[in-house]
Amino acid sequence: MPSATIFEAKTNLSKLIQRALQGEDVQITTGRERKPVVRLVPVEPVRGNRRLGFLKGKIEVGPEFFEPLPEDELRLWNGEGE
């Protein structure tokens, strides 16, 4: 497993990212003892197709949604006790 100090990681971040994307776990170390503090690994890709507006026409918001909250509920939302 390749490793780099924090200073080396700042200097060579793009190279370390490329190594991580190729499947390697890259350790970032600190101090003279080169103590491992973090691992650089690739993020899992988002699965499935996401598209905006897929619920259009399936959900309705009534006019009451836009009305102000009653005072007692507003106080609760503002964290002013129960």
In summary, what is this structure?
The chain has 82 residues and is an alpha+beta fold.
SSE map:
Elements: E1 3-5, H1 6-11, H2 13-21, E2 26-30, E3 35-40, H3 71-77
Parallel strand pairs: 1-2
Antiparallel strand pairs: 2-3
Q: What low-confidence regions span 5 or more consecutive residues with pLDDT below 50? A: none
Distance between the termini: 54 Å
The rough form would be described as: elongated
- How does the major sheet shape up? 3 strands, mixed
Counting H and I runs of at least 4 residues, what is the number of helices?
3
Structural class: alpha+beta
As a percent range, the share of strand residues is: 15-25%
Report the C-alpha radius of gyration, rounded.
Answer: 25 Å
**SSE string, helices as H and strands as E:** EHHEEH
Number of DSSP strands?
3
What's the assembly state of these chains? Answer: single chain
Mean pLDDT: 89
Can you tell me about this structure?
This protein is of the alpha+beta class. It has a domain at 3-40. The protein has helices at 6-11, 13-21, 71-77, and strands at 3-5, 26-30, 35-40. The chain has a three-stranded mixed beta sheet. β2 (26-30) and β3 form a beta hairpin. The radius of gyration is 25 Å and the shape is elongated. The mean pLDDT is 89.
